[in-house]
Structure formats: structure tokens, C-alpha cells
Amino acid sequence: MLLRFLQLWIMLRFACVSCAARQDPFAMHISCGARQNVQTKPTNTLWREDFGFTGGIAANATRPSFITPPLNTLRYFPLSEGPQNCYNINKVPKGHYSIRIFFGLVGRSKDTSEPLFDISIEGTQIYSLKPGWNKQNDQVFVEALVFLTNDSVSICFHSTGHGDPAILSIEIQQIDDKAYYFGPWWSQGIILRTVKRLSCGFGQSKFDVDYGGDSRGGDRFWQRIKTFGDESDQPRSVETRIKQASHPPNFYPETLYQSALVSTNNEPDLTYALEVDPNRNYSVWLHFAEIDNSVTAAGQRVFNIIINDDHAFKDVDIVELSGDIYTALVLNTTVTVNGRILTITLKPKEGNLAIINAIEIFEVIMVESKTISEEVSALQTLKKALGLPPRFGWNGDPCVPQQHPWFGVDCQLNKSSGSWIIDGL
Ligand SMILES: *[C@@H]1O[C@H](CO)[C@@H](O)[C@H](O)[C@H]1NC(C)=O
Ligand SMILES: *[C@@H]1O[C@H](CO)[C@@H](O)[C@H](O)[C@H]1NC(C)=O
Ligand SMILES: *[C@@H]1O[C@H](CO)[C@@H](O)[C@H](O)[C@H]1NC(C)=O
Ligand SMILES: *[C@@H]1O[C@H](CO)[C@@H](O)[C@H](O)[C@H]1NC(C)=O
Ligand SMILES: *[C@@H]1O[C@H](CO)[C@@H](O)[C@H](O)[C@H]1NC(C)=O
């Protein structure tokens, strides 16, 4: 009896040492428009009831895609509620976050026309919805990796005259401080917006949680791509364990590396092309593991990687770089794209064929300067004192995003302090 008690005591002690050493990452899920907390299957995610919004109307929602969380409500913002509305969420500890917003369609009909609007986080515009978004699974949400430095976050929705912004859910999930570090240029002054995240080969589109991934990686959506083009490649998959997958700072799920696309003798190059917004910088992450049993040692498969005519990586030998077969290798690079197409080509040098497991592409966005906080508070006081109606929409930062300043406010950037000041009303 005493022995068992001792054993239990030792077990509990050890459990507590490890729980103190690893604090769980912060995570918050909000079900917009919901009057009470909601738990959804099969992941048992707990969604908090709606809070923190500056206006808008709660309504029943239509989910545009099967990947949209199974929630029944949303919040929408007709123009009578002002041209910009925000969620201001406090008590979010300083850190690095993945913020994801799912869009909804108002009402119970799929025919409802899709709204187009702009989204900003902490005053920086991160995205404009594109026509046809509700027909494409990976466009029914926007996701951005952001540093929060003020124990709070402000997420705003800006009308552009194409229907009422409608938001189904907001997720704020802490990730590693160094997640997606891409080199010296990377800093707290940038935001990475997910443009594309592809898992190559057989299978279904999935989230990290479906793959049994580590929550410290966030909960990424991996869209399945079965081919880059007709007969140019073939899928391959294995169940063999993959080494070095779930490592910091990005904690990729192991399953990601168990399937791949391999080029064919007909078409030895593997080429993926994506339409993008021109004149932006993109951070590209390429995932490999040698899972093809025709390659057993270093030197047997070597290829170059070309992105839009530039040699991004020369002589990539997965086995040599990762240290073994069935071992994960992640390469990243940052490219400026002037045109509308981003093309990634893998060109074999040794061995006839190229292989790739997954691709991630982010837009690199510079964080905007903010308006000095005394002036924001002064304007908010003025708004209350004057009893301005909601349709004025004085929410968020008065001067940024620069595309959507407050109505009736003149702003000027003070270049020496790097913040906006109110020049006049
Ligand atoms: C929302 O749906 C519920 C049933 O799911 C219904 O009782 C309610 O009336 C609906 N509300 C609106 C505004 O349509
Ligand atoms: C991304 O690549 C750069 C070199 O280009 C490297 O310094 C950095 O560590 C890489 N990031 C990760 C997370 O592997
Ligand atoms: C792209 O990156 C370069 C530096 O590499 C920078 O000078 C330029 O302003 C960036 N462009 C955009 C649109 O952020
Ligand atoms: C930080 O947040 C507090 C309240 O949440 C606000 O009063 C203050 O102005 C903010 N500071 C900056 C620099 O945004
Ligand atoms: C601009 O910022 C500088 C440095 O913070 C400050 O000394 C100056 O007064 C500011 N100018 C205006 C017009 O506010």
C-alpha cells in the first residue's frame, strides 16, 4: 500500500515538473454571433460566445465550405453600422500568433451573394477578398502570422461597397516566437499572410489537428494537390515513420512527409505555378523527405530549384541535407514577384526525377505605423461626447490602414517618430 502511494506521489511530481516546464500556448476561438459558448465535434474545440466587437448584427450563417468550422451563427456589418468595424480583444499575452478569420454568408441560402471587403490587423491591411472566394476551399478564411506587443489585438473589417462584411469565427493561436523565421530581414515589423499551403500526393485536404500535429504549430490547413498538371507527375505515399518532422520552430505534422509528388520520365521537371498579386514579396517554404524506395543513399537524386527564373537552391540532395532517407527537410527563401505568376520548378541533375512533399507560400507584409495613442483616445472621447452615430464608423485606428482612414479625419505621418498624427478634422 505504502509502495503504491509512493509510486503515485513520484508520478504526480514528475507530471508537475513537466507541466511547469512547458506552458501551453495561448489559444482563443470566438464563434461570432453566438450567444453562448459552443463546442464542436470532432475536435472538441471550445468556441467562446461572441464578444469584443464594436458593432454589427448577429445572424444565422451559411457555411461556404466543408472546411468552415461547424458553427451556426455569424456577425455582419451593414453600412448603417459604419464602414469599418473591429474586434478588440484584450488580455492576449505578448507573443507571436497565428490569427485566422473564417468568413460566412448571411442567412440560410447558398445563393446569398458573397461580400467583398478588406481586413486589417493592428492597423495593417492584410487582405482583400477576391470575387469567387466562396467557391474555393482555401479562400473561405484568411490567416496571418503576427506579433502582438500590447496585450491586445484589434482586427478590423472595412467595407468596400460590395456587400456587408460577414465573419463566422476568429481564432487567435500562439505559435513559436521564431516560427517561420526566414532570415535577417524577418522581424516583429512584418506579417506573413498565408497565400497557399499544399500537401502533395494522395489523400484529403486536412488541418494539423486531423494529422495529429503539435498545437504549437498552430492549426494549419493543408490543401491536397493530386497533380501539378496532367501526367506530369505521380503521387507516392508511405506509412514509414519520418524523422525530424515535428521540430521547433514550426512543428510540422509527420504525415505531411509521408506523401509526395514525383515527376515522370515524360516530364522530368516538377513545376508548380500560382497566380499572385504583383509587386509583393513572398516567403516560400518547400518540404521534402526521400520516401521513394528507388533512392537509398545520398548522390542518387539531386535537383536545382528555380523560382521565377532565379536559382533559389542549387544541388538539392534530400538525403544528404536531411541526413537520411525518410527524414524531413525544409527549405525556405524569399522572392520578389513583379508579375502575376509565381513559378517553382524542380530540375533534376542526378537521377531522372524530382520529388516534393509540400509547399507553403506567404505574402510578406510590412506593418504600418500607428497613430499616437493619446490622439486615438482624444478622438474616441470626442466620438462619445458628440454622440456620433454608428454609421460614422470611427472604429480601429483613425489613420491606418491608409486605404481606410476614419471619415472626416486628416492624418499626417511624422517621419521622425514613425507615427501618425491627426492634422485636422
Ligand atoms: C436562426 O435559426 C434558428 C434555428 O436554427 C431559428 O430558430 C431562428 O429564428 C433563426 N434566426 C433568424 C434571425 O433567422
Ligand atoms: C529559413 O532560411 C534561412 C536561410 O535562408 C535560415 O537562416 C532560416 O533558419 C530558415 N528558417 C527555418 C525556420 O528553418
Ligand atoms: C520587398 O522587399 C524589398 C527588400 O528585399 C523591399 O525593399 C521592398 O519594399 C519590399 N516590397 C514590398 C511590397 O513590401
Ligand atoms: C495598448 O493598449 C492599451 C489598452 O488596451 C491602450 O490604451 C494603449 O494606447 C495601447 N498602446 C499602443 C501603443 O497601442
Ligand atoms: C514628430 O516626432 C518628433 C520625435 O518624436 C517630435 O519631436 C516632434 O514634435 C513630432 N512632430 C509633430 C509635428 O508632432
TrEMBL record:
Cell compartment(s), UniProt: Membrane
Main location: membrane
One Pfam family it belongs to: Malectin_like
Annotated membrane topology: Single-pass membrane protein
Domain Malectin-like, chain residue ranges per copy: 30-364
Residues spanning the signal sequence: 1-21
Gene Ontology cellular-component annotations: membrane
Keywords assigned by UniProt, alphabetized: Membrane, Signal, Transmembrane, Transmembrane helix
Keyword Transmembrane: yes
UniProt name for this protein: Malectin-like domain-containing protein
UniProt source species: Glycine max
Lineage: Eukaryota, Viridiplantae, Streptophyta, Embryophyta, Tracheophyta
Gene name of the record: LOC100816156
